[in-house]
Every structure is written in structure tokens, then in C-alpha cells.
Amino acid sequence: MEPIDIVRLEEAVVVFYRSTSQEQAHLHEWLTKVQLSAQAWQFSWQLMQLGKSQEAQFFGAITLHSKLMKFWHEVPAENRDELKQKILETIIQFAGGPKLVLNRLCIALSAYIVHMLNDWPTAIEDVINTFQNQQIPNVTKEMQLWIMLEVLQAIPEEMQAIYTSVKRSTLRGEVAKRAPLVMETTETYLQMQLDREWDADAYGNMTKAVKCASTWVKNIGFSIENCQNITALLLKMVNKCYWPCVQDPDGDGCMSADENDLAEVCLKTLLYIIIQPDCHLYPITASILIKMFLDSLCDITKMEWKPDNNNEDIVSSIYTLFVSAVERHSTLLLTGITTSDPELSSLCSRLVNEILQCTDKPGIYPVEESCSSMALGFWYLLQDEVFAIAYEAERFKCWEYIRPLYAHLTRILVRKAEQPDENSIDKWTSDDLETFRCYRQDISDTFMYCYEVLRNDILDILSTVLDETIAQLQTNPTLWTKLEACIYAFQSVAEHFDGDETKQIPKLMRVLNEIPYEKMNEKLLGTALETVGSYCQWLKDNPVYIPSAIQLLVRGLSSPMSAQATLGLKELCRDCQLQMKPYAEFLLNECQAALTSGQMKNSDCVRLMFSIGKLMSLLTSDKIPNYLDIIVSPCFEELTAICQAETKTPQARIRTIFRLNMISTLFSSLNTDLDDDDQIEDLQNVQPVLIVMQKTMPIFRRIAELWVEELDVLETACSALKHAIVNLKSSFKPMLQDLCYFIVAIFQTRCCAPTLEISKTAIVIFYKDEGCKSLMQRLLVEFVSHSFKLFESTPENGFSNIAETIEMFYACLLQIVKKIPQSLDDKAIAYDRLIFYALKAMTLPENGPIRTSIQFLSHFVMQSRNYPQMTVAVLTAGEEILKTAVVCVACVTPRQQVEKFADIFLSVNKKYPAELAIWLRNIMLQSPNFPTNLVDEAEKSRFITQIIREKVNKRLLQQHITEFAIKARGLSDKFQ
To answer: How far apart are CA 952 and CA 902, in angstroms?
Structure first.
């Protein structure tokens, strides 16, 4: 690189930090290049001279840190001591600020220390001695302490980030030897502070000291056997932050920002202490620490157990600590349940009770409280651990212990699932509502865990809550939220109950129909409708309750809750289709009325068509045409009108997609060929979908011509036709010719994923039918040739722009080569192009084309030995296939995807083992730097041997490929 003009560099840095993002992008590349240059070792110091702008000084500091982190090998051994002195002097120079620069210099010293641990083994002791004992003149005591803590805190993080030739595990071991000293230093400082008055500087340094200890525990580890002193200290600090402000008669009871920050970092450090990887090996110490947590912190959680409390942050941190402790030490918890030791039993009961209290926090989440959500995962863990106990007697004892807990929890969850009412909803933002929706889903999952413990007893508990709620509504009809939450709880456990339950669910169904919804919030009706849908399996075995369910759902169709009504009706028609026959015509009339009312959203109309198809399938053949005419004709009439007017406005596009979606949904569910003898009254019955298709196929062709440039319209049209094909199967044969005209008409203008998929569907279904084989073969040739035209017209660097089409092309070919490989044995199909573009797809950055092209090639190779022309194609391209695969593994494909290439190596090894050995040696050993210059000849030879040897074990082969990819990319250091 040319010599760097320091004046120009400083100007560029100032512009970079003070300019817009567009200007920054222009400068970023040059400044990065400058940082990487060897000259950076010199100019970093020049930029940090006094008098330079703060931006220049900061850039100098981060450049120095970057060089120390990534280019340590550029520092000659004889210059390293001088470098240390220079860093220390510059730190002292910036002791008065700016802190931004000083912070980066401290981190730079940390990186230097990590590199020099062998040559300067007393580095950490020297830093502590220098700054703790105030050996630096003209620098305040607090600032010297700040510098020391900043340096110590950064050491574990730098240990993980620096580029070094030392094995990461060895380096970690060296740093870990210094952990006791660092922990002792922070403990000594914090102990001194406990008995003093705290000012702003004290808060800053105490927070930094605790963060320092936290970083070492989290990243290096410090045995909990040695953590009782630091635990006691941290707990005292939390209490000193909390109680004075709460007990101050003149205060507002709210902790200051400094107190909050210090308490939070103390609690986070305690969390890191109790969840360390090896802490389960010390159950006695763990129980001592957890008891210390409870003894010290439970009074705080008790004080703050109210909605809208002033100190929610500290309570959240405490409950996070409790939950994390019990999750990490679940074995200790189970021991506490079954033990005869009263102290351990009491400890575990106290801990579980705290988590129960956390779940039961007063107020509505997340507006009035923010804690309860963090406890929900614990209830899954507890029942899961109990039922995983191997010994039956022990498992039974634990189950008996947790049953009353989960019974209590069930009632708590009903309360916590209550929605905000009309009086409080104004306080809620859209983010709050979305957070609450997710929280309710978590509560729904937790009801399922309660069922695992309580089984059918959960219905008795919910039924009691239902009775209580209905009684309360007699005196206060506006209290709808508890009733809604109770119904939601019934809905959450619905999947576990079949027709045998005849006590509580009939009562629920009766209540759902008796509720005066018109007097209550519409959300109550919405939940009731969803609940009816969730009990469809039960209704199938108890059809006597179907009329009342239909009555409620029909009521919902004309309400603002039509979305829930159409969902419930869809589930009812799907799960109880045959039981719906007596009500089919009534429901079809109601559905028609709902469609023509104009009150439903487009998505609800589309969903309703599924129910219409299922209901229409129950009618006798003489009645179906009338309903087709009433319900389906408006769709085709509107589509015809749009096509005739050639209207291509955004509104016309939306209406076209909407109408096609309605037709598509109907085609997916309308099928009179039901698996029930009573339904097949007319053996000569023609499928209704076929009747529709015969009349309307020309409209599909006109839609394709009009909207050929609109992918979403084509996708919807193809989806409708695909549903028709899958639904009708062999009955669709009379329409195949028209379908092919439709597909080829689109192909001639554009090749796109939807058209490829419907082509594949038709080919796979009809190819084996002798009467259709010739037509399907021609369609396959068109399918391949039009795709090639698209690929050939795409610029070399533009294939990512058609990644979705490439992915679909090879996904479709994969199904074809798996199910009807003989269809590819056709001279009109250019195998060399198929393979060439598959290799191209493998080198793209997008996961979809990588995956489907690899799978296609693997199956193509596996089938090729059965077809001479395909065999020749593989023998011709085999070496190129393997070469591309190796290059992808070594440097092209995203590292997370390289395992997929095992399929190619396995398939070639199974069908062409002799050729594989020759091809691999030709590829790997003839070019000295292939595939990258980071793998030597020995490593390449070993990789070849591994590939050749593994003919069956895919997992082991994937492991070999991943290891080779790591070496070839120079990532070995990061994965030590």
C-alpha cells in the first residue's frame, strides 16, 4: 500500500464519524484497508497525540486494538516490551478522557496481556499492583481503579477473540489460572465499599467491579465451591441498593438508575455463578447458595408483589435468578421432593413457591407486570423431569407432590390469561397487544403441561372456575374477561379429549350456547367459536351436540368474529364431514348468505369455501349443480369480466387473486367420492370439480395470457389447477390437453416456479397411464427446454435473481427422477445442460438451489446405471461434478450447508466407486493449491481416503466434510 498521509487520514476519519451513512459507506472500505496495513502500527500512535480531534484519537485507539487482536505476528519479539510501555503511557495520557478512547486503550492492553501470558506471567498481578496501589501520579484514585477494572474485565473476552497460534483451550487454561486473583481483587474492593456512603463515582466503579467478576465467571468459570463469599457480598449490595429507597419516608419508593444498574449486574453475576457448566457436581454448595438467594431476596419479591410496582426491573432479575437456578439444578429439586432431609425439602418447597408466586404476579402482563412469563418454561421442565424418573415409586411420589401445585397453577393461569377490558385497553400499544398474544399462547401450552399432570381432573378444575365465573356474571354482567379466559383454557386442552368424556364437555357446550354474547365484548364470541372448532373430534363421537355447535358458528358468520367462525366451521366440516350430512343444505344456504353479505374479509371468504366444498360433497348429484351455480358462478363471472375488459389495474389484480383463491380452496375440498357406502348413491356420478373445469378451462388460459407478468396471479391460478388435479386424479384426464396448452402458453412468455410445480404434479400423476404417457413426455421436454431458455438468457452473475425458479426446477426434477426415472431417458433432454446448471445452482449463496440441486444430482447418479444414456452423462461429467462439490465444500458454499454434499459423494461412491477414486485423485492432487492453499498434500490425501472409504455412514462422511471445510477456510483456530 502507498505511504499514508496522516493529514489526509485524519480528515477522512473526521468526515467518516461526522457524515451521513451514504458518505460513511464510501469511506469505510478505504479506512478498513488502511487499518489492515502494516503502517497502522505507526499512524495509530500519531492519531492519538494530544491536540488531535476526538474522532482521530478514537480511530487510532481502535486501530491499535485491531492490530493487537489480529496481527500480533507482525510485532517482533524484541519490540514487545517497548509496545507495552507505549500502551501504558498512552493510557495514563488519556486518564482524564475522553473515556471512549481510554476504554479502547484498556481493551488493547488486555489483548496485549493475553498474547504475553507466557512471556509476562505476572501481567495481571502487575496491573492490579500498579493501579490498585495508586502508583500513577496525577491520576485520581477512582480513575486508576476504573482503568484496572476495565483491563481486567476485557481479558476473558479478548482471550476468545484474538487471533493466535496458541490453541484456544491452552490459552483458556492459562487465563483461568488468574481467575482466583481477579475474583479476590474484586471481592476485596466490594467489601471495602459496603460500609461506605455511595456517591456517583462509587456506583460507577462498583458496577464495573461486579461486571468484571461477572465476565470472568461467565467466560472463564470459577468453581461454586469458592463462591460463597462473593455471593454474600453481592446479595448485601442488592439489599443496600433496594431497601434504603423503599424505606425512605420522604422518597417515592423507586430505585435510582444507579441503584438499578448495580443491583441488576449483581443479580446477573449470581446467575452466572449458579448456572456454571460444572456446578451440578457440587449439589451441597449449590443448595447453600440457593438458600442464600432465598433468605436474602424473598423479602424483596414479597414487597414488590403487586401490579404497577416501582421496582419491576429488580424483581424481574430476582425471578430470573430463581428460575435459572432451579432449571440448572433440576436434579437437586427432585431430590428435595423425595428426600427425608427436612432442610433440603423446605428449600425446594420455598423455591417452587417463589416461582409459583412469580407466575401469579398481580396485574396483566406485559402492561402491569413483566415477570410472570419467565416462569412458564419451568412448569414444562418440572413435569417433564418428574415423568422421566426411572424408578416408579420415586416417580409416583414426585407426581403426588406436584399434582396440587399444577391444580393451583391451572387456576392461576386462567386469571393470567384474562384480556384487558374496555376500561384499560387504551393504555395498550400495538406492541403490548402482540406481546400479550404470544404470552397467551405460552399460557395455552402451559395448560397442556397441567393436563399431563392432572389428566381429566383438569376439566373438573376448569368447570369449577366456569361455575364461579357464571355466578359472578349474574351480579356483574360486564365481567366478561374471566369467562373468556376460562373458555380459552378449555380450548387449550381440547385435543386430549375424545368422545368418552361425557361430564364436563357437554356442560361446556351447553354454556357456550347460553351465553348472551350480544351483551358482552365481541372477543368472548370469538374465543367461543374457536373453542367449538377445537372440540370437533369430540363432536364427531357425540353428534347430538353438533346442531348447537352449528347454531353458534352460523351466528358467528354474520358477526365481527367471522374469521373465528369460518375457522371453526372449517374444522367441523373437516373432522365431522359425514355427521354433517343432515345439515348440509341449511349450512350451504347460510354460507351463501354470508358470502353475499359483503361483511366478511377476503381471507374469511376464501376459508369459507373449504367448508362449502366439504358440505357440497355430501349432496346428491342432482342438487350439486344448483349450488355450484349459486356459489361458484360469481367467481368465474367476475374473472371473465376482468379478462374481457383486459383490466390490469392493481384492484383487478387483487380481485383476480381473491377469486382464484376461492376456487382453489373449493377444488381442494369438493370431492363426492367419499369413503362411505351410503354416500355413493350414483356410481355414474361425475365429479363436480370436473364439471367446473370443463366449463372454465378457457378462463384459466385467458388469465394466464392477461397476467403473465404477475407471478402471484400465476401462482394462484396454478394452485387452483393443482388442487383440481390432485383432487380428481384419473378423472382429470379429459382436461390434460387443455392443461398442457395452459402451461405451454405461460412457458412461451416466461418460465416461473408455479408453472414448473403444476407441470411436475401432472407428469408424476399421469405419466404411468399409457393413454397419457406420450403427452406427459412432451410436457416434460417442454418443462426442461423452457427452463434452459431462462437459464441461458440469465447473465453469469444474475442467477441469484432467479434462485426461486432454479430451486423449484430441481425440486420438481427430483420428484420425477425418484418416482418416474424412465421419463428422463429421452434423447430430447440434454443431460449435459441438466448437470451443468445443477452445478451452477450448487455454487449459489441461496440455500434452496444448493439443497435441491444436490438432491437431484445424487438421485440422478443413483438411477443412471439403469439407463445407458444417463450412464454416459455421469461418466462424462463425473469429474466436474466432484470438482465443483469439493470447491463448494472448501470455499464457496455457506459453511452451515457443506454437510449436504455428502449425498453426492455417497451416490457416486455407490454407483461409480472405481471412477470416484480416479476422479478425486485427479482433482485434488494435480493442482498444488486446489481447492485452497490452506490444505497441504497430506490433508488432501487423507480427505480422499475418507471419501472413498465411507460408502454407507452418511453421518461420519458429513463429519469428514465439515472438518475439511474448516481447514480449507482457515477456521481451525476458531473451532479448537
So the answer is: 11
The CA distance from 42 to 31, in Å, is 15
Residue 681's pLDDT band (boundaries 50, 70, 90)?
very low
Compute φ and ψ for 655, nearest 5 degrees. -65, -35
CA distance 927 to 937: 10
What are 912's three cell numbers? 461409480
Q: Could you give phi then psi for residue 47, rounded to 5 degrees?
A: -70, -25
Going by C-beta distance under 8 Å and a sequence separation of 6 or more, which residues neighbour residue 135? 129
Model pLDDT, residue 685? 63
Query: Could you write out the DSSP letters of every residue in 756-801?
Result: HHHHHHHHHHHTTSHHHHHHHHHHHHHHHHHHHHHHHTS-TT-GGG
- The C-alpha cell of 818 is what? 425418484
- CB burial of residue 710 (10 Å; 0-12, 13-18, 19+): middle
* Residue 616 contacts residue 608 (beta carbons within 8 Å): no
What's the rounded Cα separation, in Å, for the pair 453 and 48?
A: 66
The CA distance from 832 to 880, in Å, is: 11
Report field, pTM of the whole predicted structure over 0.85: no
Q: Is the pLDDT of residue 72 over 70?
A: yes
Give 570-582 pLDDT, tens digit per residue: 999 999 999 999 9
Q: At what angle do helices 770-792 and 753-766 cross, to 10 degrees?
A: 160
Is the C-alpha dihedral spanning 699, 705, 707, 711 positive or negative? Answer: positive
Distance of alpha carbon 788 from alpha carbon 791, whole angstroms? 5
**Quick check: 328 and 283 in contact, CB under 8 A?**
no
- What is each CA distance from 544 to 312, 553, 580, in whole angstroms? 51, 16, 11
787/812 Cα distance (integer angstroms): 12
- Give, as one character, the DSSP assignment of residue 891: I
Q: How many CB atoms are located within 10 Å of the residue 396 CB?
A: 12
Please, are residues 180 and 213 in contact by the beta-carbon 8 Å criterion? no
Query: DSSP state, 630?
Result: I
Question: Containing H/E element for 561?
Answer: none
Among 937, 941, 917, smallest CA distance to 929 is for 937
Phi, psi of 238 (to 5 degrees): -60, -45
Cell of residue 44, nine digits = 495509530
C-alpha cell belonging to residue 697? 378451462
599-602, long-range: CB < 8 A, 24+ apart: 599/558, 599/562, 600/557, 600/562, 600/566, 601/562, 601/563, 602/658, 602/661
**How far is 697 from 354, CA to CA, in rounded Å?**
66
The Cα 262–Cα 237 span in angstroms is 8
> Who contacts 681 (Cβ-Cβ below 8 Å, separation ≥6)?
620, 621
Distance CA 549, CA 553 (A): 6
Type of residue numbered 776 = M
Q: What angle do CA 626, 629, 630 make, to 5 degrees?
A: 90
Spatial separation of the C-alpha atoms in residues 761 and 753, rounded to whole Å:
12
Which grid coordinates belong to 598? 359483503
Measured distance CA(213)–CA(262) in Å, rounded? 13
Rounded Cα distance, 840 and 850, in Å: 9
Q: Are 232 and 292 in contact (CB under 8 A)?
A: yes
Cell matching residue 395:
416417580
Three-class SS of residue 199?
Answer: coil
- pLDDT tens by residue, 158-184: 999 999 888 888 999 999 999 999 999
Instruction: Give Cα separations from 694 to 242, 715, 721, 724, 732 (angstroms).
Output: 78, 21, 12, 11, 10
pLDDT in tens, 819-868: 999 999 999 999 999 999 999 999 999 999 999 999 999 999 999 999 99
Contact 588, 608 (CB under 8 A): no
Q: Where are the domains of the chain?
A: 235-362, 516-619
Instruction: Report pLDDT for 1.
Output: 62
